[in-house]
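Re: weekly structure request thread

Next one in the queue (456 aa):
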Amino acid sequence: MCSAGCCSVTERLRALFSYCRPVCRVVFAHMEQMNYGTSDGMNDGMSNGGDRSAIAETVEPRVGGVGSWREVWWLFLRMGATAFGGPAAHVALMEDECVRARRWLTPGQFADLLGAANLLPGPSSTELAMMLGLRRAGYAGLLAAGVAFIGPAVLLVWLMAAAYVRYGTRPEVALVLTGLQPVVLAVIVQALWRLGRNVLRTRTMRLWSGASLVAALAGMHELVVLLAMSVVAIVWRQGARATRDTNAFVSAATLWDRVRTGSRGAETGMATVVGTSVASASGIFATFFKLGCVIFGSGYVIVAFLRAEFVQRNAWISETQLLDAIAIGQITPGPLFSTATFIGYLLAGHAGALAATAGMFLPSFALSAVSGPVVTRLRRSERAAAALDGLNAASLALMAAVAIFMARGIMSTVSGALLSVTALALLLSGRVGTGWLLAGGMIVSVMRAFSATLPW
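Done, posted below.
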């Protein structure tokens, strides 16, 4: 039985890669063959603005260091257990510990690693931790930093998922969790506002993001939205130089036709790999592995993919369970991507939690390990810069689409609308953190549950 299960996993992964590889090969082959204009002032990623060409010659993440993996392990274990507040807070904490307190690297080198993390898919703060470990203590340091930083969050979420499965259906517990949902919506909207100000600085980026939002609301597959917008960005750059290259639009049209065909094949392939009525460990791993390979920008982008994959496409969890999973990820330290552990446990118990966690974070380990040559090549390629601009615009649109869908249910009640608006106002004021607002939402729900039991 074990042999058959292993074969099943291998066959599913082989099918996944066989469908995704042709699309990626077509895109990058054309990106290397064609020359495009420079970026028109668009920023370097979801949270790191500036001209990409300006950092083309900076120092790449290097392998090896002067420290031991043990010191890396204990530092990032402490940060993983205490790093509340999202990616921005994680980055600030790492900068304080590694640059100011321990002087492992200079501020410029730290900024270079942060820019490298923003160029890769996956959780940027987690990948930054891995790159810092790689620089300090080689590949052993990378592994130590990644596991230590992720570990506390995964363990806490795993335990809370077990408690959720056992007690989550009780009325009082369900009412408390319901109070968290309006706050989660406010957190997503606030992240959209903050990231949108950094990313959508030009009319072109706003146009791309608006088109992506329309496509997402119309039901287009989120992978197709991401891939299509990256191609549109490349074509846009090419069009700016059409007067100097008479074959520009011909090549762009050929690229678009091939990508569109490949995208349909990839979508069909993923349906074959994970599109079953019952979630299996191999299907969970394949789904989260795919997400770990394609999610760019803020960790909140994962919400759009989780909703599309697990609520809409496969119907493995409900909208309420998704919101509860996001809330649990918010109130625990470490990366928001640990939400994968919660969903995996809901679907297949301990095996599902392990499969989801491994699938989500394995791409980050692999990409961080080879980040030096990959990031250097991406930085020096104006064509790759254009594609990343399109990916960032589409990622924001996917976040906006899922916020709209969630708001339909949460804002339908007076209490939900009032709590969401209040939480959003407090978040935008900058005076109250996410953790305190989530705690406040729970307190309000407990008070409602207690008042409902009083004899009046």
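The chain has a mean pLDDT of 75. The chain has 17 helices and no strands.
Next request, please.
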